[in-house]
Amino acid sequence: MADNAADVADDYRQALEDLTANSRIEIATLTNIARENASHGLAITEVLQNHIKKVPPARTLPALYVLDSVVKNVPTPYALYFGPKLYSIFMGAYTKVDYVTRRKMDEMLKTWKEPVPGSISTKPVFPPEYVRPIENALIAARDVAYAAQKSSFQGQQQLLRGNRPPVPTRDTPTPPTARPAPYQAGPHVQQPFPGPPGGPIQQPQQQQQQQYGDMAHQPYPMRPHNGPNMIPSRATAQPLPLAGPSHYQQPAPREAYGTPQPGISIDKLRDDIQQLIVAEKAEFARDPHDTSKQTRLLALLDLQTLIQSPDVPREQLMLVKERVSELAVNMRAHNSAAPPLLPHPAFTPTPPVVPQQPPPVHPVAVASRPPPAPVNAAGLSIDTLFGQGALATLLGGIGKPPTPQAPTPQLLPVAVPPVRATPPLPPVPRPVEPAKPPPASNLSTNPSALLAMLRQSGLLAAGAPAAAPAPLAPNSANFAPPVMAAPQPSADQGFYLHLKPAALKQFRPDLVARIHDDLGPPCTQCGRRFRTDEEGRRKKTTHMDWHFRVHQRIVEAEKRGQHRSWYLSDELVRYLSFFPLLAPRSSRANRMPGLGQVPRGNRRGLRRARVGIAEPRRRRRQRWRQRRQRRWQRRRTVGEAGKPAVHTRARGPVARQQHVPHLPGALRDEVAGRGAGVGMDGRRQGRREGVPRHVP
Amino acid sequence: MSIPGLGQITPQAAAATTIRTIALQPLWEWRFEVPRRSAGITVRLVTGSAERDGTPLAVNRTYTFVRTKSKLLTWHGCTLEVNGDCDAYVAEYAAPEDSPMVSYLNLHFALKERRDHVRAMSGAAQNRALLGPRVMVCGPKNSGKTSLARTLVAYATRMGAQPLVASVDPGEGLLSLPGTMSAAVFGTVMDVEDPAGGFGVRGTPSTGPSTVPVKLPIVYYFGREKVEDDGPFWRELVSKLAGSARVKMDEVDDVRCTGLVLDTPAVAANQSGIDILVHAAREFAVNVVVVLGSAGMNAELQRRLAHEKTRFGEPITVLLLDKSEGVAERDKAWMRGVGEEAIKEYFFGDPKRTLSPFTHSVTYEELTVLKVPDESEYFEGQQVLIPAEISPEMSNWTLAVMDASVNDPPEIIRQAAILGFIAIADVDEERRRVKFLSPVSGRLGNRPLVWGRWPEPYINLVG
């Protein structure tokens, strides 16, 4: 389909421009496209080079990772094309980025001197004659810098020599225990265990695999080549840890590309889960016959799989992350004092491991891939793992004051669109019922040790599972309706809260709950809370859409430059600030120019790369249609009522005229003009953002 | 071999080691001051809940604070992870009743009750004109007036209300530059990272998208720092602003039922100071007056207002609340810095949103600049604004662009709302040309510019 190089280049350029975050999936997709259009390699090389040159510093690194990935996965022809330009690309980018990014670039440069990990070829990624000039330049630059500022020398020098502290491997040996058969039988496409695919850490793990023959079928130690998502893992293998121990303990080179959504630190989450797994494994090692530990470990691993899947909706991720990290932090704090292998309660609020279909992956031709390890975690749920009561106890005793948390999960179904054809993940059941005492049976079996340890470490009030303090419970009865029934014009009469200093000084815990949990769980982006009823869910959906759109538009806006708008004049404020300007920006989010030229097989991937994964397209389009319909209806009604329907954001000059019919001439022009971003003197001064839309 | 740009960045390793974790118990506050010159601090809420002046922080989001003196309060206890250098301490309260925040929260709910009441009453046709509570926050200097106003607004917004916020304090702009008075409806979450906590110029619209929803203020230009500098004009503008506010309230039920939060200038508890407050209270038909930390002012206002009724016949409640002892001293230099940064931010945006203003070069004749006549030139019956001669003195001043026509009489121009500001970059006397910085492209047309007396230029925005 891609007939000429210009089309391909154009599409590729657009796809690149949408690459804002360091997202593995997007980079993988871009690599795939490059692979399939290798015949137009030169054009793509141009595009990528220009992109790296032009892109703002913050987005340079992802662009460079694309280069890295393309070159490592499709060495022919791209390594040839990029080689001669390498110096200018690299140094150009190096001069404009900040220190942290430079270190990442140093790591990447190092990997270029080595062969592609996992490939048969022993040739380095780039021939030395291309890499060496860069190194020389960097060394020279550092010498200059050294002369200039000795203080900065240490860090860079260290960097240059690469004499970093040895890698503290946190992967404790896995115990030689067979896993339950069903687990091995499921399709396990994504490696749940974000270990390094190559490099020094790989070796011990492979040995470990051999050592423990039984473990061969476990999904996670099959480090190097067990996933179809090979591109990122290979390409990112070397930009390995450098940034301190936190990267080491989670030796996930994949991290680099592994953040599909800005704002959600999947790495961190993975890190946390990883630590839980490590702890759990050790626990498991102690008592390999304990099936409950086994299942718990399995569930954790599955959770990890889930997290790695690029298709997990944002809400879910955030929820999982919120709970895991929150509890993990607690645990870490306690871990220092408590037994080192505390089984982690952080797992509890995470989504139950459901029979999950593997997230869709873009197949990449990679040889020597072991058959996917199966997963079947059907039937596992938190309750079966821990027992409901125990869970409740844990949650009741840990972390923040036990405010009522129950309603959280209800939100999910709205905001969680189905992941392609796979069934949507069920809402996370958070069986938080602090009042429910733990069943004795659960306590007496395995978890008793756990609970005991938790008590010991102070996480759990001894013998007091229902830790929710009564005063925090919302008590709206205090705001007695009779108050409303007696309308009095006097200042305090008839009101529950009197406007008297003494009355206001009294602490009323129920009021605290009313501005917190009574309002529902917070938005993970801005902290705004939404109730879990129908209305709240609708609002939250709109709200998340808004976040999504804004993120997209920020990317667009970066390209064209922005400026402050004039304040609105007196009359206009009246019209514009109050009408709910809910009309969506048409199909902007849906429109993907240039898709027509992309080979069929890649459309989906490209689309994902462009749109991100926040919302599958089908769902969005459906919503858009509904809104368009609503907008039409509203336009009619408002128009008939004789009010200037400015808020409908009519498009096109004709429509604009029709919608501001009742204003005096000058004002009408202004309303229409402002709405369309026309300046005072009638010239276009920008895009439509001049008038902010109502934000849900 | 030297490559431009290389090696110029000092490694951030030193900063990276200053990460610290702060655990707060319920109702404790973490008070911090980030100096103006510092690179800023980043704060991440690890667990629990925290808020800055009522606006909640999202868990695990990294917030950057620059040149801010503020506090983070937690109602439930929280853990914060802070990175960067700042003066900070934790304010601990043994009992919840010790914290002034409790009374602020109660105040919010007392207001909410009255708002709900108005809403419930609005069913009947004759009650359509009922207004929600109009609160005026006043007090001496450094008593946390604006912070309380912000907190009340944030709480109201959190619960879905849409309060109208007005500031009649020209010393610090609300959604605007210093020297202005403005009002806006706050129906959406405020910017936590804004040095002014969501009241700064950062919250105004630009042509680009904004991660925090923008607010649309209506702004009047006072052009002086203190009310006393031009009392009569201030009163005029207060009346004008109150009129605009009233119009807004009448337009939308949500705003009408929610009412108003009014921020006032710091005044002394003497006759003239109280007069200022009483004037503002009357113009805005305030029915709840909150006095922060000044018993004298409270007594005086009680005497003046307690027996009065608003123009809707409601009694006026005057209420003395404690000021938070954590209120930061903001001296003259700091305030000047704040103003300077606000001007920069108005034209060039903030770290998250870079704006590109336009530089224009026009002849003297294309600009109509008006100014308030000097005292020496002033005598009874003279016009309130006279044309100002363009001179090199004007360099670096910010002038207000009025929403009026050059042909309007000066009285109208003076009281007109403003469209924005331009900054004079350079005046070339020989060629009779002026270079100025404007937020938008395009000529100014026949908009008059007003040259105020304050804030004086400290910085050259262009050079």
TrEMBL record, chain A:
Compositionally biased, Pro residues: which spans? 165-179
Q: Which SMART domains match?
A: RPR (SM00582)
Highest taxon of the source?
Eukaryota
Q: Where is the composition biased (Low complexity)?
A: 200-211
Entry GO CC: cytoplasm; mRNA cleavage factor complex
Mind telling me which InterPro entries this protein's record contains? CID_dom, ENTH_VHS, PCF11-like, Pcf11_CID
Fetch the Gene3D superfamilies from UniProt: 1.25.40.90
Q: What is this protein called?
A: CID domain-containing protein
Give the species this sequence originates from: Podospora appendiculata
TrEMBL record, chain B:
Q: Which UniProt keywords apply?
A: ATP-binding, mRNA processing, Nucleotide-binding, Nucleus
Question: Where would I find the Clp1 N-terminal domain in this sequence?
Answer: 24-117
Cell location:
Nucleus
Q: Which GO terms describe its molecular function?
A: ATP binding; polynucleotide 5'-hydroxyl-kinase activity
One Pfam family cited in the UniProt record for this chain: Clp1
- List of residues binding ATP: 29, 69, 142-147
**Alphabetical GO biological process terms:** mRNA 3'-end processing; tRNA splicing, via endonucleolytic cleavage and ligation
- Enumerate the spans annotated as Clp1 C-terminal domain: 355-456
Residue span, Clp1 P-loop domain: 139-348
Q: Would you name any one GO CC term?
A: mRNA cleavage factor complex
Q: Does the keyword Nucleus apply?
A: yes
Q: Which residues form the signal peptide?
A: none
Q: Quaternary state and partners of this protein?
A: Component of a pre-mRNA cleavage factor complex. Interacts directly with PCF11.
Q: Could you say which protein family the record assigns here? A: Belongs to the Clp1 family. Clp1 subfamily.
Described function: Required for endonucleolytic cleavage during polyadenylation-dependent pre-mRNA 3'-end formation.
Q: What is this protein called?
A: Polynucleotide 5'-hydroxyl-kinase GRC3
Species: Podospora appendiculata
